Amino acid sequence: MRHLKRSYQNFILLTSVTVFLYGVYVIIYAWGLQNGIFKPAVTGHLPIAIDSAYAFMAMGISQACLIHRSALAAVVSRILSGCVLLWSTLLLIRDFTPVKIPLIFGMSPQTALCFTLLAISFIFIKSRKRKYIIQALLHFVTLIGSIAAIGHFLNIPEFYKMTFIPMAVYSAIGFVLLSVSASLMNYNLGITGLFTGNLIGNIMARKLFLQMLVAILVIGTLRIVAHRKEWLSPEFGSALLIIIFIVITLALIWKTSTTLNKIDDKKRIAVENFRIAIESAPYALVISDRDGKILSVNQQTKILYRYHEHELIGMPVMNIIPKKMHTDYVRRREQFFADNHIIKMGHNEDMLALRKDGTEFPIEIILVPIKTSTGPMCLASVIDITQRKNQEDTIKKQLIELQVKNEELEQFNYISSHDLQEPLRTVSNYISMLQEDFPDRIDGEIQEHLKTMGSAIDRMSHVVRSLLNFGKLGRKKKLVLTDCNKLVNDVAADLNSLIKNTGTEITVTCGLPEFYAYETELRQLFQNLISNAIKFRKSSISPDITISSRKLDGFYEFSVEDNGIGIHPKHSDSIFRIFHRLNSDEEYEGYGIGLANCKKIVEMHGGKIWVESEPGKGSTFKFTLLNFNK
Ligand code: ADP
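The line above is the sequence of histidine kinase; the predicted C-alpha cells follow.
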C-alpha cells in the first residue's frame, strides 16, 4: 500500500472511532433498558439491532487497525472482520435460503449484506491484485447506505426498507462513513480517485459534486414537501422542478465553463511564453523521438546547422552528426533512454556537429528526457563552442609561450648570477691580497676604505647568491609524502639557538596534515616565515608564534601568526616582491628575498599566499597548498 496522506489517516481514524463509540453507546443503552435504568418512554426503541452495534464496534476497530503498519494490527483487523463476515453470512443464509439457522438477533438483510461486503473489503484491502474489486465493493456499500439515508431523511420507506426489515438510519450513516473512509486506503482508485486527484478534472469534480448534491437534495426535498402538503398540483410541481433543475444545471455549467476557460487561457499564455523562450534561446534546441527522428527545432538550430525548418523536421538526428561519431552517439542515446537521466556530452571530450554544407563545428550537448503523450522524447540543447575553443587554443598557445619565456628568464637569471660571482670573487681576492702584500703601505684610512669595499662585496655576493638560489628554487623539486608536524619540528630545531636567545614560543594548535608536497621547498617556506616572525619582533615582548592548518575543498590552508611589529595593509602585496623591504638595514638585517621565495614555493604547490596584519598588532601569514592526495 502506498504511504497514506496524514489527513486521510486522520479521517479514517475519526470514522473508526465514531462507529466504534456508536456501537458502544447502543450496547450501554440496551443494557440500560434491560435493567430499567432508562425511562419507559423510550423502551423498545433501540436505534439499531444489537448485533449491528457489535458489528459496528468490530468494524471500527478493524478499520483503525488497517492504518497501523504492524503485523499484529493486520491480524487483529482480519480476525474482527472475519467474525463480522461469519455472522452476517449466517444471517443472509437464514434469510434467503431454506436452510434453518436458529439465530434470534436480526439486523436487516440489507444491513447484513453491507457488513458482508465491508468485511470482505477490509480483509482484502491491502492485497495488490484485487484492488479494483475491493474499491467497487466499497462504492456499492456507500450507494446502499446513501439510498437508505436519503430514504430516512425524506421519509420514503421504499428507499430504506429494501427488504422486509428496514435499515436503521444510523446503520446507513455508519456504512457511508466506513465505506468512504476505507476507500481512501486506495485513494487513487475508482470514484474516490476522481475526488482525490490533483488534476483539473479532479478539482472540478470536488467543487461540482458538493454543489450539485446540495442543490439536488434541497430541490428534491422541497418538491416532496410541496407534494405532501398539497401546495402544488403534481404537474405544476414537476414542471417547476424541471425548470429549477435546468436553471441550477445552467448555473453550474456556466461556472464550470468559465473556470475551464480561465485555466485554458492561462495554459495558452504559458505555452506561448514557453514557445517564445524556446525560440529566443541562445542555443539550439532539438526535440527528437526514440527512433532519433527530429520533431521540433528552434530558431537557433536553423542558424547553427544552416537548414530550413521544413528540412529539419522529420529528418534523422544522425544527419546533423558527423559519421565518425555515429556509433558512439547511438550507444549513448540508447543508454539515455534506458536510464531516463540527463546526460552531458562534449564537456570533457571533443564533440562535433555537422552543418548542411558538410562543415563541422565543436559543440556541447545536454540531453534531457521529456515525457509526452506519445512516449518518452529527448530534448537536446546544443551549444556551439567554436569561439570558446578558439579562445582556449589561443590561451594554451600563450601559456606555452609564457612558459618558454619564463624558463629562458630563469636560465638567464641563473647564468648571470653565476657569472657575477666570478668578478666579485676576483675583487674580493684582490682586496685580501692588497691587505696581505702591502701591510706597510696601507695606512688607517685606506684600510677603512678597503674594509667598506669588502663588506659591500660580501653583501653583493650574498644578493647574487640569493638570486641564484631563487632561480634554482624548485629545479629539483620532488613530490613526497610530507608530515608537516615533523617538518615544523625540524625547522624549530634548526633555529634552536635563535629561538632560545629570543625566548620565542612556538605553538602548533592542531595536528598539521601529512600530504604529498615538495618537502625541501616546504621546509624553506616554514623556515622563512618562522625566522621572519622572530626577526620582526617587538623589542618589548618575546615572540609568540602560532601555527595552524585546516582542510578546505581540495586544499590545505596554513597560517603562521606572530605578535611582532605588524605590517601596514598597503604593503600586503608588495612585500612578496623580490628585494622589497619595509625596514632599513640598521633596524632589521635582510635582503628582501625571503617572502618572494615563499610566494614561489606556494605557487609551485598550486596555492596562494597573503598576509593579514595591522602595524603594532602582529601579522598572520596565510597560504594554501593543493592537496595532491586527492
Ligand atoms: P627580509 O626579511 O629579508 O627583509 P622578506 O622578503 O622576508 O625580506 O620580507 C619582506 C619585508 O616584509 C620585510 O622587510 C618586512 O618589512 C616585512 N615582513 C616580513 N615578515 C614580517 C613579519 N613577520 N612581521 C612584520 N613584517 C614582516
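Note on the example: The longest helix spans residues 386-437. The first strand starts at residue 284 and ends at 288.
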